[in-house]
Design a protein that fits this description.
The chain is mainly alpha-helical. The chain is built from ten helices and no strands.
């Protein structure tokens, strides 16, 4: 019985629960380590994202016989010019739209409350079942709004933390560009024989998954944000650039992100002109259909091979556990765990086949 898979999984699960239980009881010992990890995790993540976004450029440069220090210099200068362009050209437009939004916030809030009260006053004219459903939907919307507000606050906190620790981001980024080939060998060099080859393959698969996901997701988000920006400008929606930048970051969240991105656009469009909601919906529909049929299949393909229901479940769970940052990293972390589990499973099958063959 001890050789049965279900028995081994059960014993492993019980041991994991016991380890977690006793670890939680002595967690105060590891508090300084946790503080240090929290201090460096965000700059490390940002540095990793920048690395995966620029690694193909570095590879192309070095294929043309440009030395490592030269490729790093070119990439850093290019990013500096890109940042300067954004601050000098797009920055004033964003600042102007943010100031207008802040100035008009009381008016927008008043108009939104008037619309809500008007709709709510007509609730009594509906059948009782519809009233119950409406009350339930309102409570659900309030819960979602509270959670979304917490995500926004946590996102802003993470953003200001990133700005405060901005000096660490270039440090991690340059270090990754300089020595990225040394990371994997230092890990699989600790092993030998077939186990070393398995660890090497697993690390290579993880690197491929992260590279494809980060590069693909950012490219998709940038294309969608551009389509949305052009569409909002065509229909004359206010705060078009601000809403497009918001959509750029929200579209980094698979499946749920586009729905979050379109919500403020629909509200602003309705307060501006109720007919504008139709045009905002049309722009969103064009962007989503373009993404579903042209962009995502060609850019991402089936790199992750994760079911949409699994994606939504993982994102919601990560949001409750770690806020907005958890939502952003949920899918890559899940993809890494999936790669590890699949490789472990394949390794077990190879061992079983070898044992059977020997017998």
């Amino acid at each position: 019985m001890t050789k049965k898979l279900w028995f081994q999984v059960g014993v492993g699960t019980l041991l994991a629960i016991l380890i977690i239980k006793y670890f939680m009881e002595i967690s105060f010992i590891f508090a300084p380590i946790v503080i240090i990890i929290k201090a460096i995790i965000l700059p490390l993540l940002l540095g990793g994202v920048l690395y995966y976004m620029t690694e193909p450029i570095q590879r192309k440069l070095e294929e043309r016989k440009i030395p490592r220090w030269g490729s790093i210099t070119i990439i850093m200068v290019g990013l500096g010019l890109l940042l300067w362009t954004f601050i000098s050209i797009i920055g004033p437009i964003i600042t102007n739209q943010v100031n207008n939004l802040v100035d008009n916030a009381p008016t927008l809030t008043k108009d939104f409350n008037e619309v809500k009260n008007k709709l709510w006053s007509q609730k009594e004219e509906l059948p009782e079942q519809f009233q119950t459903s409406l009350d339930s939907a309102a409570n659900s919307m309030q819960t979602i709004a509270v959670k979304f507000g917490k995500w926004i606050v946590q996102f802003l906190q993470s953003f200001f933390q990133a700005v405060f620790l901005l000096v660490l981001v270039p440090f991690f980024f340059i270090f990754m560009l300089k020595d990225h080939e040394k990371f994997a060998p230092r890990i699989y060099g600790l092993f030998s024989g077939e186990r070393q080859q398995w660890v090497k393959k697993t690390l290579s698969d993880i690197n491929n998954v992260l590279s494809s996901y980060i590069q693909g997701q950012f490219l998709i988000s940038a294309i969608l944000a551009t389509i949305i920006l052009i569409g909002y400008w065509i229909i004359g929606l206010e705060y078009a650039l601000l809403l497009a930048i918001f959509a750029l970051f929200m579209n980094l969240i698979p499946f749920i992100g586009p729905w979050i991105a379109v919500t403020p656009a629909l509200i602003i469009g309705y307060l501006e002109d109720p007919k504008m909601v139709i045009w905002v919906g049309l722009v969103t529909l064009i962007a989503q259909q373009t993404d579903s049929h042209l962009i995502t299949p060609n850019v991402m393909g089936k790199t992750l091979d994760i079911h949409p229901l699994t994606v939504i479940t993982v994102i919601l769970a990560a949001g409750n556990l770690a806020g907005f940052l958890g939502i952003i990293v949920a899918i890559p972390v899940y993809a890494i765990l999936k790669v590890i589990v699949l490789n472990v499973y394949e390794r077990r099958k190879e061992i079983r086949r070898a044992a059977t063959k020997n017998v």
